[in-house]
Every structure is written in C-alpha cells, then in structure tokens.
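Thread: Newbie trying to understand structure tokens

Hi all, I'm a second-year student working on a class project, and my supervisor (Dr. K.) asked me to get a predicted structure for one chain before our next meeting. I've only ever worked with sequences, so writing a 3D structure as a token string is new to me. If someone could post the tokens and maybe explain what I'm looking at, I'd be very grateful. Here's the chain:
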Amino acid sequence: MQRFLFTTLAALACTGTALAADKPAPGTLRIESEAQFQRDHGRHATRMAPGVYLMTQGELSGKKVAIGAPGLAHDLALLRKQLMTPGLSNTDRKALQAHVADLEKLARQQATRGSRTMPGARASQTSSFGCWSYDNFSQTYIYYPGFVDLSVGGGLYKDRGDGNLNWYYARLQSTAIVNVYPPSSAFWHRFSVSAAASATNVLTGQTVNAVPFINFYSAGAGTGYIYSGPSFGHHLKGRAVGFASGDCFTYVSLEDVFQQ
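---
Reply by user tm_fold:
Sure, no problem. This is what the structure looks like when written as tokens:
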C-alpha cells in the first residue's frame, strides 16, 4: 500500500513521489480536521470567515488556510472570479476551468453527503475527512482517518557571495499530499483522493500547474520552483490543495504570496 509521505519537498516536486517519513517537512502545514487545526495553530491564526484563516505568527505567517465545506465555498467564489480575469492564457484558463469543475463536483457530493445522517455515536469523533463506509462482511460502519500536508513557500534564494541572499533572485513552490487510512486493503470503499498545486509569476503571467500523482489511498502534486530573477521586483504566488470525496470528504487549501 504505497503512500505519499514527506522526506523533503524537493522529492515530490521533482519526481512526484516521496519516501516514508513520520513528520511533514519544515514549513509544511498538516491538517487532519478543523478542530485539530484550531488546537495546534489557533493561537497563531486569525479567523477571516467560516473555515478560512490567516496565519499571523511563526513560519507560516501570512499564509491563508481554507478548511472543509465553508473553505471550499470561499475558494470556489474566488476561483470563479479569477476565471473572469482578462489576459489569462488559454492553457491557464483551461487548467483553472478543470480545477473549478473538480471542486464544483466535490461541493455537490458534499451537499448530498451532508444530507445523510452519519450513523453511530462515533460520527462526531471523525476527522475532517469524515471517512465512514459500510462493511458488508461485518455489517457495521467503519470509520477511518486521513490527513493533508500542504506547503507553499517563496523567498530569495541566490547567495551573493557575502553570506546574504541576492534580492534580484526569488523563487516559489507549492506542494500538496493527501493520505487516507482505511483499515484494510480488502475493505470495500468508495472514496477518491486528489491534490492540486500551482505557482505563478504575476509580473510575467507564467503559471506552473502540477500534474497530480494518484493511487488508491494517496495523492500528491508538486510544482517545483518557479523563478522570477533576475528582477528588480518580485510577485510570486502559490496555491496547494488536497481533497477527498465519496465515502470521505475533506477540503484544505493553502495560499501564499512572495512580493517585494
């Protein structure tokens, strides 16, 4: 049962795979549920809207996080507006349209799933993935967890020879990994996972959209670095998204901008 797990962000960004590790890489946000996010990061974040947070302290400061169905609705509204931006290349428009279509499908599935009563007393204890399936063999509902690891990072990178970084040169990358943990590979389930990542040089209009790598229980997407140097100014932005549908539901996105 292969899974995508972090060793370094470069491993996924360059190859689409990563070797096993117990912890996310530095600068990576791991989310299992909104409750877990609030517990672990709430003191470093400001709630902007239902399911939407701005990180205000620490290494993640300045990054925007969207979680769950409210976060999905928030992001969809912004992405639909972005589709109306004049000057989008045909390639970027098609990629954005495909991403919006995937998220609209996820929103419809969540609306249907949300109308179903989650069985059993354990329903309130499930993660934001909300993974629960009926096992015909045992004739019971099975609950299982998952998590999303997201990273968007930009900054100066080229040593100018005196120990400082050259402000002409900047770069940014985005990475997303989703893992779901059903109790057994033989267990019948009806869920799917996916990941998306993009990086944009706003000044030139160049956008890199990562191709996701997906297996039964994991998904990963990594843009690699997008570069803006040499330049007197930098405006780079990135977005990483992990989501699951079917017998599971989750949606988490992370956005960041490097600009000077």
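A couple of things are worth pointing out once you decode it. Confidence is low (pLDDT under 50) at residues 6-21, 121-127. The chain has four helices and 15 strands. Feel free to ask follow-ups in this thread.
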